[in-house]
Every structure is written in C-alpha cells, then in structure tokens.
Design goal:
The complex is a heterodimer of chains A (about 300) and B (about 575). Chain A is mainly α and about 300 residues long. Chain A has 13 helices and one strand; from the N terminus they run ααβααααααααααα. The radius of gyration of chain B is 26 Å and the shape is globular. With about 575 residues, chain B is mainly alpha-helical. Helix content of chain B is about 65%, strand content about 5%. The chains are: A mainly alpha (about 300), B mainly alpha (about 575). β1 of chain A pairs parallel with β5 of chain B.
C-alpha cells in the first residue's frame, strides 16, 4: 500500500534530518562551551567524525547479552520518541507516527531510554554505573514534575493531548502567553538536556553514569547517535509546545537552535548541584512556578 | 494429591466462565428464617463478572505454584473457601451476603496467614481485619436503619433518607473498612508485614485479589449508593483523591527504602492501588479504575510469583544477599523485565493502556494538579522498580552460591509466561478489554469509552494505537540490533570474568563489595521532603491509639473492679440512666 510506503519514507527522512541536525548541534555545543571557557574548541564536524570512528573501533567489551541490548533499547526509545513528535504542525510530511499516539505516549516513550540505560549499565556490573543510574533516576522524577505540570496545563487549555494541535493553536507563542509555565518547563528542559546545574556527571568526572565508562567502540557510537537524535527530538517537542511550532525547516532550525543555545549557555554558566540538591530545588522552585502558572492559566481567566 | 488439587479451581473457573454470558439472578426472602422482610440476592452483573475473572485467574496461578510447597489439605481447603467467599462478595447484590463473604474472607485469610506469620504480624492483621469488619457492619446497620433493606437496589433511596450526620458517619465507616483492605496509606500498618511473612504461594493472591476486594467494595459504594459527582459529596471526592495520591507517592518512596523484595512489592501494591482510589474520585473514572485493576492483578501475580521462585531456589529474599542472577536465570529475568515494564506503565506493554486511560480521565475532568501528582509518583516508581530488578538480577552475585544457581523450575515459569503473554497482548490490543469495561459502564448508566477497534484505546481527548506502537518498537529494536551485529569489523568480545570492569583505576577482587543494591536509594533520604516521608511512620499514631485504649480500659477497670459493692452501684446507676433515657 502506498500509504505505508509513504510513512516509511517519512520516518527515514525524519531519522536522517534528526541525525544530521543532532550531530551539528552537538558540534556547536562543544564549540560554544569552549568559547565560554576561553578555548577554541574542536571543529563543528568533529563529533560526527568521532561517531563514525567509534563505529569501527576495535576492542569492544561486552558483559553479557543485557549489556549488549541496553544501548539498543536506548536507541529504539530515542527513535520512537522522535517518530511520535511531528516536526511541523500543518503538514503530513515529517509527522511520522504522531497520528497514532498523543503527548502522553511521547512522555512515556521518553522513559524507554533511561530504562535501556539502567538495564545495560546494571548488567555491566560496575557499581559506579548503578550508582550513576540511581542518581539519574532520582533526578528524573524531580525534573519531570514541572514539565508535567506545564504540559498538563497546555493540554487542558487546548482540550487536546495532540502535539500538532497544541503547536497550531498559539496566537502568540505559549511561552509568552503563559510565561510562568514556560519558565517552569524550561528548568525541567535544562535538566532533560543534561545541562548544569541539574546534570548527572558523565564519564570524565568522579562518579560516572553508564555510557562512556563501560560502553566503548560501537556501543559508544550508538549512544552518541542516540544522544544526538534524542536531544533534537526533545528540542522539537519543546518548540512545538511553547514556541509556536514550525511550518518549515528554516523556522524549525531557527527556533530549536535558539532554544539550544539558551540551554547550553545556561549549562556553561552554572556549577553542578549534587543530586539531592537538584531534586530539592526542582520540586520547590520550578514546580512552584509551574503550579502558579497553571492556576493562573486555568483559573485566572 | 498433586493433580487433584487443580480440580476445584478448574471447576470454579468453568463455573465463572459459564456465568459470563448469563444474566442469572436469585433473590430470596429470609422469612423462613424468622427474618421476614429481609431479602438477600445474588446476581451476575458485568462488574461481578469482571472481578470474578480476576479471582479465578489468580486462584489458577496460585494453585499452579502451590504444588511446589509442602502444603497440607487444610491449606487447600482454606484457599478454596477463600475463593468461594470472594465469589460470594462479587456476586452478592445485597450488603448482608456481602458482609458474610467479607467475614469469611477475613477469617480464612487469617487462618492461612497463621501458618507462617509471626505473632506480632498476625495480631496486626487480626486487629485491622476486625476493625475493618466492625466498621463495615456499623455502616451497613446505619444504611439498613434508613431503608429496612440490605439490597443494593434499595441502597440509593436508603442513603438519601439518612440524616446528613448519619450519611457522613456511614461513609466514613465504609471508607475506613475499604481503606484498611486496600491498604491506603495510614491504614496500611498491617500490610507490609503480612505480605512479607505470608507463605510465598499465598502472597500473589493477597496482592492480586484480596486487596482488590477493597476496590470492588468502593466501586459498589460509588455505583449503587453514593453519587460522587453530586455537590454534597465534593468532600468524598477530595478525600479519595487525596488519600489515593498520598498512597501513591508515599508508597513509592517507602518501597524504595526496603531491602526485602516482598516488602518492596507490598509498598508497590499500596502505591498502585492509590492510583485506582484517586481515579475513582472523578465522575468518569470507573473505566480507568477497572482497567488498572486488571493490569495490577496481572503485574503483581507475575512479580510475586517471580520473587517466590527466586526465594524457592536461592532461599534469599534480600537485595543485599542476591544479585547477578541474570545469566543464571535468563527466563526469570526477562519475565521480571516484562513485569516491571507493565508495573511502570510504560509502552509498548499493557501497563501503559490503563495509565493512559486514567490520565485522560483526569485531564478531561480538569483534575490537573491531581494528574500532575500522579504522573510524579509514577515517575518516582521507576526507582523502586529498578531496585527490584537490579537487586535480584543485575549487578554482582553477593555470594558464591548464587553463581551456581539454576534456572527456576518450570512450574514457576509457566504461569509467568502466560501472564506475560497476556500483558504483551494487551500492549498490542489495548482496546480488547474495552467492550468488557463498557458493559460494566453501560449497566450503571455511565458514559462509555469510545471504541473503534481492538488495537486502539480511545478517550474523548484522543486515542493511541497499541499495535503501531509495539510494532514500531519491535521493528526499530530489530533494525538497531541488526546494525550493531552487522558491523563485523570490530567483533564484540565477552568480558573474561565479572571483575573485568572499570573500577576507578583499581582492580576489584572477591573481597570487594560490588553489588550496589543495599545502599540504593539511601541518597534520596538527603532530599528533605523524601527524608521526611521515610522518617515518619504510622506506627506512632497507632501506638498513641493503643495507649489511649489501654488508658480507657484502665478507667473501665475501676468500674468493674471485682468488688461486688462497686459493681452493684455501677449496675444500679446504669439501670437508672437507661430508665431515664427510655422514659424521655
């Protein structure tokens, strides 16, 4: 059937564009962070080359089949998230599978990545990996809370849990119509993008969470690609929800990039919270802001 | 005896299945017993069918594994009697038979528990079961006093005839009775000990259906007696929402603090049933509540049987003494993985369907902050779920013996595989249960769930396609795996032994404690609000109550001192008061 072929082509194009843009952004991230630290930084294409290089690097060690499948689940989860988020609000192209599921589905598909990570790292056997996963999951429930509140408010305002509908029904951007909701969600978003002050330390730091500690070679390549694609999917979701969505690639890139630069600038400027501190902060300040925003948006007329 | 024990459960299942299609009803006046005007009734309703299926399903699963335990005939007899009592509860159409079933349930459960429980835990269970039954009896009597009938059919009118004070008292008594059975937080003092110390074959039954009876009773109350959407019952709705949310949030954090697999699952039961109590507080919440009852029954049967098998094989139940069993028991691991995905309510499996329904219900009803809090506790559940699977299967074996453990026996695996297949099926066809739920809703005149096809689960604010989600996930998973396997240039090597890990530049050996399970979640105590939840326990309140009761009994003791003259004076005084009151 033609329709199914169209969907497959659509998904492929979404995948390719997310892959390319994701790695472009990752390269820019390394560059911009370097400028904040008065370094020059690597070329923009460096992370792309890195990932290609890792695909063919030798000496990859596996700790059993669950360790092997963990990154696969993560990648599948990231792709699922990507495919259920429409890129543009009024076109059928680049809408992927979004007609088969709404925002609740996306919010839960985003959990598949952490699950795959947790399983793979747990099977890896490094106690520090499990420690990092516990910290990640601890932070997870706190960082989701303000985001959930903002998203619920938007769904209630639009009487719909459909992402394209929420993206299309914005007279001025939701970010300006409901600033408190946006601010609350933005804190969560910084945490979701793994930026300071809410990040969980990665490999080079004292206690590491999974990926780079035990996963090497093609596992690492897979995880890098996963991270790039997943970041882009999250950016698109945020643009759809708060920044009026996009009608074409230029608009999408402009908006996601603006958001991305803001997030990494924020991350570069702040030091890291300890996990309990960041949980404490997230469930108090951003959650409080989001609750007030919700009450104003729903009951404030 | 091994096979003969399956006869009764099979017959009971057949009986329930035969009743599914019928609309049999039976009503009799108890005049022959000197109770003229009092009627009792049994009826096959869709609601009764729904829960009857859950009962026989759990009974079958439990009977299956029961053969592995050296049980006497008394065990089986009590289990069968208990199942009959549960069926009496669900098919009853009046509060008299309901109460009889409730009492038989409590007593047979007590006797079944008495084989394994320590006296302390047993007393806890008994005290709460009696308090629950007495509260319910009081409530039923209040209702009877107004309507002179026990029938559900007359209950609505009888409730309307109650004075405002009595109606509130009635609701409070009934809620107390149900909350104790469900294990709503604050009323859960007996629950964790009972679940943890009950025989391993009985715990799945406790969690899967006995706690559901509280939910069923609550549903009966909301369907036949009280109209929760009516303005005078706002407080009832708020109470249910609040208690449900507290159960989910506190239950999730308490679960994380446990080192014992069965205790963790006990608190998880509290948290999961909290969702159901919460969603029952909104007008159209019945559909989501029914769906989640089904999902929770399946998930808890699966997980408790899984843990029972681990205990049977290794003799250990603490996370700090387990670990690393994944490569010894791959089947059990995969089944537990399916179980926790269902419990966490993640797509692509069936658990997501009920979560989806509940979330959409709350969204449509405008209970936005309730919804946010519920999603929060649902995200917090990931932590204890990870602790469950990591503590048992991942990480490192805590002892030499675990490294030589064998896969669990087939009798444990088979029921798990069947249940897992059902949950996967529900993931692909989340709408398959909707007709059954809709018949319950139609019977009670509630708004139906939209139904288009078995693969779609619809609500007013949109639907999702389970088949597409599960197919997309499986295909993507396969594609990524194929990509990973097809790059032959760098073959992945297996680690030589389990110490071959990155360990901050050191080399771990036998003496290094590598299993992280014990301290997992300890860090969370440093978060102020979580720490506060974990530090406090309802034991303090119940100690206070028991001290007050002792003091009160001491006061009574003075009146009834054994000194004949004092007794006589008290009796005379009492008689005078009685006389005065009757003259008035």
């Amino acid at each position: 059937m033609v329709e199914y072929e169209m969907i497959v082509i659509d998904l492929f194009l979404m995948l390719v564009s997310a892959y390319v843009v994701g790695f472009l952004y990752y390269g820019l991230y390394r560059n911009i962070t370097a400028r904040f630290q008065r370094r020059i930084g690597p070329p923009v294409t460096q992370s792309f080359y890195d990932s290609i290089k890792f695909w063919v690097k030798e000496e990859t060690l596996s700790h059993g089949w669950m360790f092997y499948l963990g990154p696969v689940i993560m990648m599948a989860g990231a792709l699922m998230t990507l495919f259920f988020i429409p890129f543009f609000y009024q076109s059928d192209a680049f809408s992927g599978l979004s007609r088969y599921g709404n925002l609740f589905v996306v919010l839960y598909l985003m959990m598949l990545g952490p699950l795959g990570n947790a399983m793979g790292v747990g099977a890896g056997g490094s106690p520090f990996g499990a420690m990092g996963v516990t910290r990640g999951l601890t932070r997870l429930f706190a960082m989701e809370l303000p985001f959930y509140i903002a998203v619920i408010a938007l769904m209630s305002i639009n009487h719909s849990a459909d992402i394209a509908t929420i993206a299309a029904h914005q007279e001025s951007y939701n970010a300006f119509s409901y600033p408190l909701l946006f601010i609350g969600a933005l804190f969560s978003f910084i945490a979701m993008m793994g930026q300071s002050p809410f990040d969980v330390p990665g490999a080079p730091v004292e206690v590491y969470s999974g990926p780079a500690s035990e996963f090497s070679g093609k596992f690492l390549a897979l995880l890098m690609s996963q991270s790039a694609i997943f970041s882009f999917a999250k950016l698109v979701l945020m643009v759809n929800l708060f920044l009026g969505g996009a009608s074409g690639f230029a608009e999408l890139l402009l908006k996601t990039f603006a958001l991305f630069v803001f997030v990494i600038a924020f991350g570069a400027l702040y030091g890291r919270f300890k996990t309990p501190q960041s949980v404490d902060f997230l469930v108090k300040v951003p959650t409080g802001i989001a609750v007030v925003g919700l009450l104003l948006a729903i009951y404030g007329g | 005896m091994r096979y003969s024990v399956a006869v009764f459960p099979s017959l009971l299942t057949l009986f329930v299945l035969l009743l599914l299609g019928s609309h049999a009803a039976w009503q009799v006046d108890l005049g022959a017993f000197g109770l003229s005007g009092v009627s009792v009734a049994l009826k096959v309703t869709s609601l009764a069918n729904f829960f009857a299926v859950l009962v026989v399903l759990s009974l079958l699963a439990v009977t299956f594994i029961a053969g592995r335990y050296s049980l006497s005939k008394v065990h089986y007899l009590l289990l069968y009697l208990l199942s009959l009592a549960l069926l009496l509860i669900v098919y009853a159409q009046d509060y008299l038979l309901f109460f009889v079933g409730w009492e038989v349930m409590s007593i047979t459960t007590y006797l079944l528990l008495s084989f394994t429980l320590t006296p302390k835990a047993l007393v806890k269970y008994a005290v709460f079961a009696i308090a629950s039954a007495m509260a319910m009896l009081g409530g039923i009597m209040i209702l009877y006093s107004a309507g002179q009938s026990f029938l559900y059919a007359d209950a609505h009118a009888a409730y309307a005839a109650l004075s405002p004070v009595m109606s509130v008292l009635f609701l409070l008594l009934m809620l107390f009775a149900f909350f104790v059975k469900i294990g709503v937080i604050g009323f859960h003092y007996w629950l964790a000990d009972t679940y943890a110390e009950a025989s391993d074959f009985f715990t799945p039954f406790l969690s899967a259906v006995l706690s559901k009876m509280g939910i069923y009773a609550l549903m009966v109350l909301l369907l036949y007696v009280v109209d929760i959407s009516a303005p005078p019952h706002r407080w009832l709705a708020y109470t249910l929402a609040l208690m449900g949310l507290l159960s989910s949030i506190i239950g999730s954090f308490k679960a994380l603090d446990e080192d014992d697999a069965k205790r963790l699952l006990a608190y998880s039961s509290i948290a999961q049933l909290g969702y159901i109590v919460t969603v029952l507080s909104v007008a159209d919440g019945m559909g989501g509540a029914l769906y989640h009852s089904l999902i929770h029954t399946l998930a808890k049967l699966l997980l408790f049987i899984n843990v029972a098998a681990i205990i049977a094989v290794t003799g250990k139940r603490k996370f700090s003494e387990l670990g690393g069993l994944i490569y010894r028991m791959p089947h059990s691991f995969v089944l537990m993985l399916i179980g926790i995905i269902v419990l966490a309510g993640m797509p692509p499996l069936g658990g997501f369907a009920s979560k989806y329904l509940i979330y959409n219900n709350l969204l449509e009803e405008g209970s936005l902050l309730v919804l946010a809090a519920m999603m929060f506790s649902s995200a917090a559940a990931f932590l204890y779920i990870y602790k469950l699977i990591y503590g048992i299967y991942l990480g490192h074996p805590s002892s030499k013996k675990l490294e030589e453990a064998r896969e669990v026996p087939f009798v444990f695996l088979l029921p798990q595989y069947l249940i897992a297949a059902v949950t996967v099926g529900l993931g692909a066809f989340p709408g398959a249960v909707v007709p059954a739920i809709n018949s319950v809703l139609a019977e009670s005149g509630l708004a139906l769930l939209p139904y288009s096809s078995a693969t779609q689960l619809g609500t007013q604010s949109g639907s999702y396609d389970g088949l597409v989600v599960i197919l997309a996930f499986v295909l993507l998973f396969a594609a990524v795996l194929w990509l990973l396997l097809s790059i032959k240039h760098n073959r992945v090597k297996e680690a030589k032994d389990r110490f071959d890990i990155a360990y901050c530049g050191e080399v771990p050996n036998e003496g290094t404690r590598l299993h992280y399970a014990y301290s997992m979640g300890k860090e969370l105590k440093r978060v102020s609000f979580v720490g506060a939840i974990l530090r406090h326990t309802s034991a303090v309140f119940y100690l206070f109550v028991s001290r007050q009761l002792f003091a009160f009994a001491g006061m009574l003791r003075r009146l009834y001192s054994g000194n004949l003259s004092v007794n006589f004076n008290v009796a005379v005084l009492f008689a005078l008061v009685l006389l005065w009151w009757s003259m008035k």
